[in-house]
Specification:
Blueprint (H helix, E strand, L loop, with lengths): L5 H24 L7 H28 L8 H14 L8 H9 L2 H4 L4 H11 L13 H31 L1
């Protein structure tokens, strides 16, 4: 996949997963639903969202992943500039400053509420500093946690939708 930028793929992923959830919820809230088109449309959005999730995870891993020790200074400079340009890096390492930065970040606020940002920061602040993980990649961690949550929600609604279809037969 061409570097369509991971952020564009992530945005498409959010769009498809939110559409899947909306379609399943509409199907489940309808008084009668003899037409299963909505269920299958929801499954299509869910499948596309899951595919985009895997694609975006691969793309973001390439972008923020390990830089070989023999990489040229020009490559290192390009990578640092690119990460800065797409806005995926966090600047702060102190908890309160990081919280403020993340809760005012346009990229995150496009997909998460301030409350969700706070919950995820509390959940991952310590673990994001262990091993090979870095606090500067907290935004990516939050985005992928939210996407995983949407996938789980859509899958749960998909099961309920399927059960409703079988009950109507």
């Amino acid at each position: 996949m061409e570097n369509k930028t991971a952020l564009i793929i992530i945005e498409e992923c959010f769009k498809n997963l939110n559409l899947a959830i909306e379609v399943f919820q509409n199907f489940l809230s309808a008084r009668t639903s003899s037409d299963t088109t909505d269920h299958y449309q929801g499954l299509s959005y869910l499948d596309k969202g899951k595919t985009l999730y895997k694609d975006s995870l691969g793309e973001i891993s390439k972008i923020i992943g390990f830089v070989p020790t023999d990489a040229s200074p020009a490559f290192r400079q390009w990578k640092a500039g690119y990460l800065e340009k797409i806005g995926i890096l966090s600047r702060n390492t102190e908890f309160e400053r990081l919280r403020s930065e993340l809760q005012n970040d346009d990229l995150l606020l496009k997909f998460l509420t301030a409350e969700e940002i706070n919950i995820l920061l509390v959940k991952h602040f310590e673990s994001q500093q262990t091993g090979k993980r870095k606090l500067e990649y907290m935004k990516a961690r939050m985005l992928f946690d939210k996407l995983q949550s949407l996938i789980e929600d859509a899958e749960s609604l998909s099961i309920r939708s399927k059960e409703r279809i079988y009950q109507q037969r």
